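My main concern about presentation is that the manuscript never shows what a single data entry looks like. In essence, backbone conformation is discretised, so a fold becomes a row of integers matching the chain in length. An entry of this sort, consisting of the sequence and the corresponding backbone structure tokens, reads as follows:
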Amino acid sequence: MAWEVFGDIDDYRDPLLQRDAQFLCGHQRMDTALLDRLVLQLNRIHPQILNDHEAQRFRNLAAATRGRLSGLLEHLQQEGDEACLGFYQALQLHAEDLYCTLPSRVSLREMAEPKKTNTLTVQERSVLNHKGKTQ
């Protein structure tokens, strides 16, 4: 599977993950089960980023999900771009609908899509003007 995370953007830490972290931590967008799957994915696929001890800390159900998520995202930012990329890949894999609504993804799509305008070319206006009224 090819990861189409952020195209040519090289720095995932600032401000992308910071802005996305605010989005993810707000309004209960991330539930306990999803956070658990992300932590397990990062621990299994990238043990150099999230070792067993750290994974257990972020899977501790005694702590609030929002606090664990906030701690995980802060940890990933400190680890660097590879860790952040691993998080985005795990999020895309386990919750693509949430991944697609991240502010960084939305703004990237908006930059890639040309703005549609309601302006007509001179030739289109001329054709419309010469058609006349239909009865």
User: Anything to note?
Assistant: The two ends are 56 Å apart (CA to CA). Confidence is low (pLDDT under 50) at residues 1-10. The longest helix spans residues 65-79. The CA atoms of residues 51 and 109 lie 34 Å apart.
